Amino acid sequence: METKLARIAQIAKDRPKEQFTSLAHLLNADMLLICHQELSRNKAPGIDEVNKTEYEKNLLENIGTLHESLKKMTYKPQAVRRVYIPKAGSSKKRPLGIPAYEDKIVQLAVSKILSAIYEQDFLDSSYGFRPGRSCHDALRELNDIIMTKKINWIVDADISGFFDHVDHGWMIRCLQVRIKDSTLLRIIARMLKAGIMEEGEFKASLEGTPQGGIVSPILANIYLHYVLDLWFEKIIKRQFKGSAHIVRYADDFVCCFQHEYEAKSFFNLLTKRLGKFNLSIAPEKSKIIEFGLFAKENAKKQGKNKPDTFDFLGFSHYCGQSRNGKFRVKRKTSRKKFKAAVQRIKQWIKANRTTPVKVLLEEIKPKLIGHYRYYGITDNRPMLSRYWYEVTKLLFKWLNRRSQRNSYTWEKFLLLLKAKPLPGPKIYSSIYLDN
User: Fold this and answer.
1) Are strands 252-257 and 153-158 parallel, antiparallel or unpaired?
2) Short-list 275, 155, 276, 177, CA closest to 222
3) pLDDT higher than 90, residue 113
4) Residue 254 pairs with which residues in a beta bridge?
5) Measured distance CA(75)–CA(218) in Å, rounded
6) Hey, which end of the chain has fewer CB within 10 Å, N or C?
7) Looking at residues 275-289, what average pLDDT do you find?
8) Beta strands of 243-355 (E only): which ranges?
9) What integer is the mean pLDDT of 265-272?
10) Position 434 pLDDT exceeds 50
11) Distant-in-sequence, close-in-space partners of 307: CB < 8 Å, separation ≥ 6
12) CA 350 to CA 360: how far, in whole Å?
């Protein structure tokens, strides 16, 4: 199967205008079995209440039946089970979609086929949910653009509820640029229209990609490849006189410009472009700011204490200085993400405060390291230290609420941390790869 996908990938790379007419046959029993094996065992079940362990009790028969339904086009995805989970740092709850287990298998298989084709087409400016590309890679690229290109203005635009508003008709039209296999297209269309089951009530999905679906990231990248990436590369960059660049991670993107008038013109054009595809910009989350070599000086002339900042991938980007006094882009954990991270660890410590202290400290270590691994990038050590401090304060607070009497004085608590130290802040990723 890997050989067949590699062959498709090679054809897609060698023939950029090739349209694939025979792909659905790849959804065979072998492919479905491989996808089953790759799925996690610990995920919540969909509306059919079937998980991986349950499914593999009669595995070969189940896979065979699923394959037959795909071959005869009797396969019909089940509605996605919608649940709501707490949103850290907010009283709101985040909707989460859970597909049925068998639908996860099919979605993973379809995503493998789509990835083999479209990974050859996606532009270098796209980073989200792609093999060998990470958030830190996107941050490095953005840093390099601002530091080495003629960039003075940033357009920080947010697409309002992107995954909920992908237009199904346009989605299929985007896929048809490369895919002419009507069977595969029909399977994908059925995935898009599977619907949502919430508290026993079925809701039709007239727009959007499958919530929580494995196939959603690749579908989103394909959609934005045509809606945004190619348009920016082929139209915007060619018609603008100054420097213009984009870095996109899924539906989160930042655009950089040399000239203010072109940044403002782009924002207006972007609004119209997205509107054509039934998408819109969230005005309260979008802005145009001066950012770059001259931003600090110009901010002073305008009576501002410092230049404006923008957020991207959980980091606030601001105009800083290097040790020799020259302009440099710097980053720190965004206020919103920091608050959410502290809220999450607070809830966890509170829920586990009755756990034996030694066990509790051991279990909190990987949580700290996980935070450092993502936010531990160049210039962000102060925010890592602040996070470590907040975690220790929360530990002290909740360990002292295990009984009516205080368990620890601050001095005793510090001795505990000396004996059982928590991982300290660490920079895991350099924005400057040559450092």
Assistant:
1) antiparallel
2) 177
3) yes
4) 156, 247
5) 21
6) C
7) 95
8) 244-249, 252-257, 287-290, 310-312, 315-321, 327-333
9) 98
10) no
11) 289, 290, 291, 295, 296, 298, 299, 318, 319
12) 11
The answer to whether 250 touches 221, Cβ cutoff 8 Å, is yes
Using DSSP, state whether 286 is helix, strand or coil.
coil
Q: Any alpha helices (H) in 193-256, and if so which ranges?
A: 216-224, 230-231, 237-239
Q: What is the amino acid identity at position 291?
A: F
When pLDDT is averaged across residues 148-170 and rounded to a whole number, the result is 96
Counting residues of the chain whose pLDDT is more than 90, the rounded percentage is 89
C-alpha–C-alpha distance, residues 246 and 228, integer Å: 10
> Which residues does 176 contact at the CB level (< 8 Å), separation at least 6?
185
Q: 96 pLDDT exceeds 90?
A: no
Provide mean pLDDT across the span 124-135: 96
Pairing of strands 201-203, 327-333: unpaired
Cβ proximity of 121 and 222 under 8 Å: no
Instruction: Show the tokens assigned to 179.
Output: 């895919």
| Residue where the block lists tokens 């009790």 | 57
What pLDDT score was predicted for residue 89? Answer: 59
